[in-house]
Amino acid sequence: MVDHNDETKGGTGPRLNRRAFAIAGASAVAIGAGAWWWSSRSGDAADDQADTGEPAEAPIAPEVDLAGLTPASLKLVDGLTKWFDKRGLQIDRRVYLAFAERVQSAGRNPKVNRSMAQRFILSTDFIQNGTDPSKTVRWVAYYDPYSSPCYNPTRMPAATG
Predict the structure, then answer these.
(1) Count of other CB atoms within 10 angstroms of residue 136
(2) Which of 48, 51, 61, 123 is the most exposed place for a label (fewest CB within 10 A)?
(3) Angle at 134 between CA 117 and CA 47, to 5 degrees
(4) Hey, what's the torsion of the CAs at 120, 126, 127, 132, to 10 degrees?
(5) What is the pTM for the complete model shown?
(6) Are 77 and 97 in contact (CB under 8 A)?
(7) Torsion, CA 84, CA 87, CA 90, CA 93, rounded to 10
(8) Which of the four pLDDT bands, split at 50, 70 and 90, describes residue 58?
């Protein structure tokens, strides 16, 4: 058996074997992940403390050119309107139009079904408002986890206090 720690051979110390390399790599990843998590949490608290004024009134949805929408997209708007009206959620038509425009530009099938309704709700601030139907539902961004994986509408801000 070869002894790599033998000082008489002029070695500089133990060699880095696979196990030590794996442990060092896992430790570096864990430290990096912990630092990222800690910095993201402390950033939320700083943002909450800096916001002392009145919140700016955000537009309900961006303006949409109706001439640019296809009949299938307009049918999607009508279908989603019926879907959510039946469930007691009153949403401004501009929000539906913004969603239909985004679905059309993404090349998705504008078929009204449960999956499309979920994608619509995740594209608004409804969940971030605590699913309160009395609050105005506003357009946030088209929810597509493949094109923008960092946007998570179900993420709740960290509790401070």
Answers:
(1) 16
(2) 51
(3) 85
(4) -140
(5) 0.55
(6) yes
(7) 10
(8) low
